[in-house]
Design goal:
Radius of gyration: 23 Å
Strand order of the largest sheet: 1-7-6-5-4-2-3
Number of strands: 13
Distance between the termini: 51 Å
Shape: globular
Largest sheet: 7 strands, mixed
Number of domains: 2
Strand content: 5-15%
Structural class: alpha/beta
Length: about 400
Amino acid sequence: MQLPKHGAPRDAIAARIREKKAADADWRGGRTWSLIYPAGEDVDAMLRDANDLYLFENALNPFRFPSLREMEVDVVSMTGGLLHAPQSSGGAMTSGGTESIIMAVLSARERARAERGIERPEMVVPFSAHPAFAKAAKYLGIALQQVSLDADHRARVDDAERLVNENTVLVAGSAPNYPFGTVDPIPELAALAAGRGISFHTDACLGGFLLPFYAQLGEPVPPFDFRVPGVTTLSADVHKYGYCTKGASVILHREDTHLKQHQLFFWDRWPGGLYASFAMAGARPAAPIAAAWGVMNFLGEEGYLRLARRVRDTTRRLREGIDALPQLRIWGEPVMGVFSFGSDTLDVFAVGDVMDERGWHLDRQTGPDALHLMVSPEHDRVVDAFLADLRHAVEHHSESKGAEARYS
């Protein structure tokens, strides 16, 4: 496509955009199980207000837009409060979990270089850890060592201990991981790192805004936050279960001095004046900061607790329905509204194909083969329809396999 010589009317362009958008996944109908976290029309309205107010501003310069700096400080502070960050902590907002993880890895590398003189850095992360760690390893010149998983799809501490060496700059664990929704043994992994003066990162991008409220609901939540000794950094995405629009995440440091010493980029050796940034990006969209501040204040603890209860109850219904199908099994012991299921007897991807035909959007995974769900509050409206179609998909696949056996 070439840039047109003459512009088209606004209404015509909007119509063309709507036409293109018609092919996208139907997340408003509750038929998409990843990427989007719908929490209701009231939350959507709040997000639209905040986004419209800050559609054009640039968060790069806090002196020109002090309101954005104030809101970012507030978002970081509220997030730190949820995750029991100490008074000595510090943090910043980023564009998402990937950027938060990259900044945590960068900080660990720089700390190890300053304190231990490490020039050939390595990091030790679970096999189930988010690909952002691999991306950080590639970008930052760090060797990636992957920890094997146990039968419950959690990182094996003995394998992590085997991989840690004098060049290790970071050990990490997930709370929970994306593929299985299981929480790694954070206390044991963090102790392993702390005993050697190594940074430890808890990737709570998924769980940071849900696990604290699960705990308030009386659900068993494994220790993962700053109450665990040895956790030096932690990431939590406001645009996941914080229900903000993309992209808003928080990276927290146990020590604010580490944030300023190892994450902050500062440059004044050019003609353009002082340049400083706590994240990869220079110019930053203002809308996600305002939206994060807006939705956190709009919902408050009571609102988040209400939404967490909906996610928990919906997840229970889904898991009970899946457990009732003997051909299927849930992998591991997921702790919240993220999990995957597969089969020892069926081609679960063929089951997923039938679900696709019925309008559902389920992610595929391998190792083991699985269909993946991330449960949002609005999914409580579609549980019965989803399970009915899943039963049909399993029965259809079972009948097809039976026919193949008879005629082979």
